[in-house]
Amino acid sequence: MRRITSTVSRKYGIGIYFENNFSKKMAALQQIVQNNERASALVDSLKSEMAGIQSQLVLRKKQELIKENAALEKEIEAALAQLVQLELRNGKQQILVPGSREFCTDAAAEAGSKTAAAAPSNGPASEAKTPSAPQKEKKVKEKKPAAEKPSPVAEAPVDVGRLDLRVGKIIEVGRHPDADSLYLEKIDCGEAAPRTVVSGLVKFVPLEEMQNRMVVVMCNLKPAKMRGVTSEAMVMCASTPEKVEVLSPPAGAVPGDLVHCEGYTRQPDAQLNPKKKIFETCAPDLMTNADLVACYKGSALHVPGKGNIVSQSLKNVNVK
Which of 35, 61, 213, 268 is deepest in the core (most CB within 10 A)? Predict the structure, then answer.
């Protein structure tokens, strides 16, 4: 009897052990499943967040490209206008190309009708109207048509649009070897080679502030020798008799960026003619305003899509 009871108790204990062990394993399995579900939810959430970030980045890049394209279109329009002005000044006529076939056909028909009217008729009717020719015909010298004189080209108005203002960067600067009051600079204007520029800024701007500085440069002055060195441009500054500040381009401007003025078409001369005094005419209207922005007749000088040209502290003073 004791043996039977012991055997039953042993089997019952083993059953309980296996049941508890099974319960623990099931609980662990459920925990694993729950962890897996949470991990999957977290992965889905991260994927959704990454997709949102990616779409925002794409949208931002798209907006930047739209702005860049708009700026490039303005530069292209300005370049085309400048090209037309240069061709006009050089006496090259601008021919309007007909935009439709009908226009070309009418012109051809008109030319054809004029030719037909001018040409003598060889038919019998013309023979009937022609009087009998005399025995000796006098030779008539045909007059050569006078050469057409080219119409005078209208000169562009004298305003800030005639000045070739660009962004530059001083890549090298030092004292002029023969003048204590002059700096000798190499300025990158976005061209194949830097320009040599002589500036009388020694008394106003320390040498260390000129190093690697972004500036605004007028590039179409006639090159002039200054104490034996040919200066090929001019650094634009806000100026008073007591203080001079170099104008600063907007943040993000790079060498070669073109400076525009609101309300004035940028069509600079290839080189300013000193006799016409174009810069001297514009200079009195080049000033900083109360917000330190360089202006021409109150209109801001700016780099399209990047910002205005400014001085550091000089308000309502001349720019030269």
Answer: 268
